[in-house]
Amino acid sequence: MVRHMFSNVLLLWSLSYDIYITGLTFDYPKEQSWNNQNLYFVPQDLDVRLRRLDLSNNFIRQLHTVVLPYLQQLDLSSNQLDLISEGAFENLAQLEELNLSRNALDNNLGSNSKALQSIGRLKSLDISMNGLSDYSAEMYLRNKSSLNQLKMTGNALTRLSHSLFKESKGLRAITMENNLISVIEEGTFEPLSQLEMLNLAKNNIAQICDFTLHQLKYLNLSRNSVEFFVSRENDLLYRLEVLDLSFNKLLYFPIVPKMNQLKYLHLQNNMLGALHLEAAMVSEVNYLYHEIMNEKIVTKNTLHSNWRLMPLVYMDLSNNHFRSFPLETLSRLTFLETLNFSYNCLQSIIWNVRPYSDREYHRQIFFPSLKHLNLQSNGLAYISPLFLNALTQIDTFNLQDNSVQPCAHTDHLRSSESTQQIHLNGSCVAFQTLSTLKHLNLEGNNIKMLNANAFQETSLVSLNLARNAHMVMHVSALDGVQETLQSLIISETNMTSSDLSLPCMPALTHLNMSNNRLDSIPSSGCSPLREIDIRNNRLVSLNNSFISAISAHLRVMFISGNDFNCCDSKWLTTLDELKVKLPDMSGTECFSGDSRVNMTVYLRSSSSYCLFHNKSQALHSWQMFIVVLFVFVILTFLIIFTRKLCCTQIPFVV
Ligand SMILES: *[C@@H]1O[C@H](CO)[C@@H](O)[C@H](O)[C@H]1NC(C)=O
Ligand SMILES: *[C@@H]1O[C@H](CO)[C@@H](O)[C@H](O)[C@H]1NC(C)=O
Ligand SMILES: *[C@@H]1O[C@H](CO)[C@@H](O)[C@H](O)[C@H]1NC(C)=O
Ligand SMILES: *[C@@H]1O[C@H](CO)[C@@H](O)[C@H](O)[C@H]1NC(C)=O
Ligand SMILES: *[C@@H]1O[C@H](CO)[C@@H](O)[C@H](O)[C@H]1NC(C)=O
Ligand SMILES: *[C@@H]1O[C@H](CO)[C@@H](O)[C@H](O)[C@H]1NC(C)=O
Ligand SMILES: *[C@@H]1O[C@H](CO)[C@@H](O)[C@H](O)[C@H]1NC(C)=O
Ligand SMILES: *[C@@H]1O[C@H](CO)[C@@H](O)[C@H](O)[C@H]1NC(C)=O
Ligand SMILES: *[C@@H]1O[C@H](CO)[C@@H](O)[C@H](O)[C@H]1NC(C)=O
């Protein structure tokens, strides 16, 4: 009986032990990292069950046979590998991802390429930074029918031939940044029917005469020397969504495929607009197109007709050479939401849209989806009111570093037509027409006068008026937007407290008044301020009841660079108690008599710094006490004396 029980217990024990063991076997190390361990060789006693092995950042020079039948990922990047023996990968039956970047694989091509050719099931290969020539790259890419991803950045490739990828036709993503590629033979990428992403940035490609890769979704040609980009018109549907042609030498807009899905077009830092105004530029690129396509007669505006079909939402044209805004071309892009036109040389936006007929005076065209427009640093002094009318959906308007003067609000003007007539020649900009506008940046425009109701009828949420050192701000300048405004920046406007009066703004949470000459905060307590910056002003103290009034929401306050009086700093104690963050507290000083005191230090022992202040007060009351005592004694003495006198006189009367 006991024996039977004992055997049962044993059975139970062994069962649970078994479960325990099995649990353990699931926990074996699938992954091992030897990153940066000063290894000169691959370690000998590796666990055969490993799935991932990281040997990067060591000094390994040779790779011989490794037996890791379950290994899927091997990282040998940043070693000094120059020899891989032919059979090195033979016993890595599961290997799918191999990182060999930053080695010296341009050596021992015979043996290395045989080794690499033996792993046909590889899905991802990184052979960047190995000094590879065109020929060695081709050798390493043989027998790679399963390869999806290939990285070959920073090698010495110059010419891509149609035989390069002939045994790796399953590629989906190729990155060949930072080589010396100047020639791409026809048929190099065309047969790669799965190819979606191609990055050729930082090479020497000079022109794309006929873009035929309709399977691509992403093409990066940034930082080459591309002068023009042209696609032959056909009825194929191109899948391209992102095209980066930034930092090139484009003189003309690219002629994109007729049927495309382009959403993001990066054209910043080119030479667009350098030669001609819009009309000439358009006809020249059409001429060029027909010349490249060997068509004799130029009849069609291919640029415009193809751009009209483009579902573009984002375009970056910053840092080009535009002297006029390409109104007609850009208005073809009816889905365009974001346009970065900063750092060009516009100076003015004139409505030079060609009329359809002689009778038509100013033809109004629109940018029907444009929400975010960046015109920073264009030297703009004039913007046609018809241009403002065209911005029917504008949300964010960046006009930083121009010379724009906001117009006064003219109440009697209701229809846009009369606004046109009034302002057509005037040099001010009537923001009141932009009813959807939420974010406006007018920093550094040398604004002279901000008139009453300057932004009325907009929906402004944030307004930046910084760096307008000569700006006179009307008391009612913000009327009409004081209910909606959440962020206001008026730093570096050289204003004193008497120059500045702010209305009650019940939505304002961020206020930046730094770098002025304010000696009091001109804000009424009615804003739920969360962040306030009053750095570098002339504040001596802050109104404690104001601080208490805004304390409910206040999180952060910047205060350094003022003339605070140490002994009048109840506000500081209040802020400290309310746990408001004062990030620049350690750089803040206050004045006590003639000496400056570090405010952090002051807060720790405030009583000792204002001792003189307190002492004089104590002295004062002590003196008062003596005087009162003195008067009391004299009075008592007098009373006693007179009474005595009276008493001695009575017998005389009786
Ligand atoms: C290969 O390793 C390098 C770092 O050594 C890393 O930057 C790169 O992204 C890796 N390649 C892949 C495809 O993960
Ligand atoms: C190509 O790869 C397959 C699968 O990995 C392999 O069996 C074959 O030997 C390789 N061919 C050459 C020529 O190395
Ligand atoms: C294109 O490549 C450049 C250079 O690596 C990179 O800076 C840029 O972000 C890429 N463009 C896009 C749209 O991804
Ligand atoms: C617009 O372009 C400028 C200059 O290239 C750049 O600094 C800025 O970040 C861009 N702005 C947006 C919103 O993309
Ligand atoms: C309006 O502008 C045109 C062209 O710039 C100029 O010739 C004309 O004198 C201006 N009219 C007024 C009233 O400023
Ligand atoms: C306030 O504006 C100044 C520029 O005058 C800037 O340096 C500072 O970072 C801004 N403060 C905050 C909190 O953003
Ligand atoms: C600010 O205003 C004062 C007094 O009007 C003037 O002396 C000073 O030059 C102004 N500073 C700037 C940067 O314009
Ligand atoms: C202090 O602020 C309160 C409320 O914000 C205001 O009523 C009072 O006039 C201010 N006192 C001074 C001296 O500015
Ligand atoms: C003020 O004191 C704090 C803490 O002792 C210190 O970190 C900070 O550097 C000092 N600031 C100045 C301007 O001396």
TrEMBL record:
Question: Which Pfam families does the UniProt entry name for this protein?
Answer: LRR_1, LRR_5, LRR_8
Q: Which SMART domains match?
A: LRR_TYP (SM00369)
Q: Keyword set for this entry? A: Leucine-rich repeat, Membrane, Signal, Transmembrane, Transmembrane helix
Query: Where does the sequence pass through the membrane?
Result: 622-641
Give the signal peptide, or none. 1-23
- Source organism, top-level taxon: Eukaryota
Name the GO cellular-component terms.
Answer: extracellular matrix; extracellular space
Against PANTHER family, the record matches this protein to: LEUCINE-RICH REPEAT AND IMMUNOGLOBULIN-LIKE DOMAIN-CONTAINING NOGO RECEPTOR-INTERACTING PROTEIN 3, SLIT RELATED LEUCINE-RICH REPEAT NEURONAL PROTEIN
Put simply, this protein is called Leucine-rich repeat-containing protein 32-like
